[in-house]
């Protein structure tokens, strides 16, 4: 039996079982298989749980016929005791069934969350290029809950189907007419309820799409709340969120109407079934074909069969919701990583010269190199190439959400077109990855090195890092590898003492999600501290001090070189305070390295360099070559 939490190895482990994304039904069957033996154990326990419920009415009928009607008190007592034992057994098996079924639900729910997490790890920065954040979050949250609900209802529906057939056989062996009525009732319920399932599924899909968009809006608002407050845009964006919330509510109401219609059909038919069974049973007793005990048994079975019939309706509802959710999940899980494994992996020599063919920049090992560009995107693109990150493409995002006015074949065609667009984008990324990367380390192109090795040895800290909720210690050292002295050294270099002091509890102080309790400068220094603490062989920093004041920047600049002494460090910046401490500076013009040397020399000899570094271009170069600083 698979234990909880579920073991998930897909995507990040080669050869691990990955979800079947050929179709929603194939994916859902894969989810069932992932429960392993637990699904079959749950079904067995559910069947055992149904035994007392199928035997109980028969035992009541026998107690009436052989005990009460016959006037045999001993027989009545025996049947009552037997019924009590069966009831106790049913209660115990019900507890076991509930325990197993909740376990199935949780495995499907958290297994989906783990799959999304591992897919995000596999795709990295490419995931947000291909799929909106709201869709990914919805798959991890609400869709995972739908899959868990499907596991529960599937087990329950199969056990109650078996009980339904057993009861039908018992009734049929006693009375053909009443047995036929029992056998016909459930198929009739399914037949009349099926036409209502398609519009219900459509509106549930619309609700799911609108809710995904609402989640994306919430993510964007939270991520940019500080900026929104600065420009006074809270009311506008809050109004947009409120309007989208109403659209979600409207679609939920529409889906609820069809759901209520399906429920009404189930209640109407199950109630009509009990009435018909009672009427027919009374006639059978009047004509002498049934005994009083048998009639009571049949009425008990009639009341019992309401439960399976309602379960079949519930199964249809949750199946349609799960198909909608599975279609969204496939859009995420079917995406292939853009990187390929080299046929003959090479070893990365981090103590060698790094050369970027596109810009012509070469970075000497073991020194502090800084890159200056009038266009920040050019230096950021160089940082991406050094870390082997794919460049972002405008308009590359492909959503699986389709316009609400498309139905039937038009909706299927649009969904297929978007799936093909995502496949085409993945194909382009894969072709790009198969080509030489253009960045060599000691003459070895990064495309010949396993991506895991590149990530292990080359760390890129960009301008949009993530800060997760947790302690300061876990934010700086998530793997728990640092000693206290190493962590404090990183804190000192990043001049982040005020971050430490601002949190009650010091290293055990709690950070809010995204570091919301910190200022922009504090959050940036926390990220710098984390990058320094990783102690990677090659460190690439993109504008690491853009949000800090000049005095703090001067302290960081004076300490960075000593902290990274002997290891390759590349900083993308145009700050004179940092550039003054660089071992070597590279100037990019139109994305191409046009000059290199010491900061003071470039200030003196290069007008292009002065135009980027010196604000206004007319400051005294000698003053900038020796800026005042506080190095303590």
UniProtKB/TrEMBL annotation:
Residues annotated as domain ABC transporter: 340-615
GO molecular function: ATP binding
InterPro entries tied to this protein: ABC1_TM_dom (IPR011527), ABC1_TM_sf (IPR036640), ABC_transporter-like_ATP-bd (IPR003439), P-loop_NTPase (IPR027417), Type_1_exporter (IPR039421)
A Pfam family it matches: ABC_membrane
Keyword Nucleotide-binding: yes
Location of the protein in the cell: Cell membrane
Keyword Aminoacyl-tRNA synthetase annotated: no
Membrane topology: Multi-pass membrane protein
Source species of the chain: Terrabacter carboxydivorans
UniProt entry keywords in alphabetical sequence: ATP-binding, Membrane, Nucleotide-binding, Transmembrane, Transmembrane helix
Transmembrane annotation, as ranges: 37-58, 79-101, 161-192, 258-280, 286-306
Segments forming domain ABC transmembrane type-1: 40-321
Protein name: ABC transporter ATP-binding protein
Entry-linked PROSITE patterns: ABC_TM1F, ABC_TRANSPORTER_2
């Amino acid at each position: 039996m698979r234990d909880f939490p579920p073991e998930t190895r897909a995507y990040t482990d080669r050869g691990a079982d990955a979800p079947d994304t050929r179709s929603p039904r194939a994916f859902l069957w894969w989810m069932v298989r992932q429960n392993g033996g637990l699904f079959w154990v749950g079904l067995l326990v559910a069947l055992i749980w149904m035994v007392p419920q199928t035997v109980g009415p028969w035992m009541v009928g026998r107690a009436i016929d052989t005990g009460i009607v016959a006037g045999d008190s001993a027989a009545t007592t025996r049947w009552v005791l037997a019924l009590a034992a069966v009831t106790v057994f049913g209660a115990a098996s019900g507890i076991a069934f509930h325990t197993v079924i909740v376990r199935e639900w949780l495995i499907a729910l958290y297994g989906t969350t783990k799959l999304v997490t591992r897919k995000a790890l596999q795709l990295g920065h490419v995931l947000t290029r291909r799929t909106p954040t709201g869709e990914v979050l919805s798959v991890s949250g609400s869709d995972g809950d739908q899959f868990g609900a499907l596991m529960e209802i599937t087990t329950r529906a199969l056990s109650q189907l078996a009980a339904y057939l057993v009861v039908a056989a018992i009734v049929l062996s006693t009375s053909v007419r009443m047995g036929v009525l029992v056998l016909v009732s459930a198929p009739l319920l399914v037949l009349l309820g099926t036409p209502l399932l398609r519009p219900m599924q459509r509106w549930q899909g619309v609700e799911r799409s609108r809710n995904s968009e609402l989640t994306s809006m919430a993510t964007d608002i939270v991520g940019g709340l500080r900026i929104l407050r600065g420009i006074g845009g809270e009311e506008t964006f809050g109004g947009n969120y409120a309007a989208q919330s109403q659209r979600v509510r409207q679609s939920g109401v529409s889906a609820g109407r069809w759901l209520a219609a399906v429920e009404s059909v189930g209640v109407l038919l199950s109630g009509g079934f009990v009435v018909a069974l009672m009427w027919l049973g009374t006639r059978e007793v009047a004509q002498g074909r049934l005994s009083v005990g048998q009639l009571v048994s049949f009425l008990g079975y009639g009341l019992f069969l309401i439960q399976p019939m309602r379960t079949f309706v519930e199964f249809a509802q949750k199946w349609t919701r799960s198909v909608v959710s599975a279609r969204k999940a496939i859009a995420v899980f079917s995406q292939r990583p853009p990187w390929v494994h080299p046929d003959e992996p090479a070893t990365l020599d981090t103590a060698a010269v790094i050369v970027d063919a596109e810009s012509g920049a070469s970075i000497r090992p073991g020194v502090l190199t800084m890159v200056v560009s009038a266009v920040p995107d050019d230096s950021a693109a160089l940082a991406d190439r050094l870390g082997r990150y794919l460049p972002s493409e405008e308009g590359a995002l492909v959503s699986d959400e389709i316009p609400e006015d498309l139905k039937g074949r038009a909706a299927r065609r649009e969904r297929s077109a978007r799936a093909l667009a995502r496949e085409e984008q993945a194909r382009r990324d894969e072709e790009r990855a198969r080509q030489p990367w253009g960045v060599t380390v000691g003459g070895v192109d990064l495309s010949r090195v396993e991506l895991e090795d590149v990530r292990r040895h080359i760390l890129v800290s960009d301008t949009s890092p993530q800060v997760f909720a947790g302690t300061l210690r876990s934010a700086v050292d998530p793997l728990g590898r640092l000693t206290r002295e190493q962590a404090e050294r990183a804190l000192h270099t990043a001049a982040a003492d005020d971050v430490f002091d601002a949190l009650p509890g010091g290293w055990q102080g709690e950070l809010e999600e995204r570091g919301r309790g910190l200022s922009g400068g504090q959050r940036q220094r926390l990220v710098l501290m984390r990058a320094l603490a990783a102690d990677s062989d090659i460190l690439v920093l993109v504008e690491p001090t853009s949000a800090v004041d000049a005095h703090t920047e001067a302290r960081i600049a004076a300490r960075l070189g000593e902290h990274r002494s002997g290891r390759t460090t590349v900083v993308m910046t145009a700050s004179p305070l940092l550039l003054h401490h660089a071992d070597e500076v590279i100037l990019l013009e139109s994305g191409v390295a046009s000059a290199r040397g010491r900061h003071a020399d470039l200030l003196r000899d290069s007008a292009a360099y002065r135009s980027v570094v010196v604000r206004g271009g007319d400051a005294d170069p000698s003053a900038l070559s020796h800026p005042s600083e506080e190095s303590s």
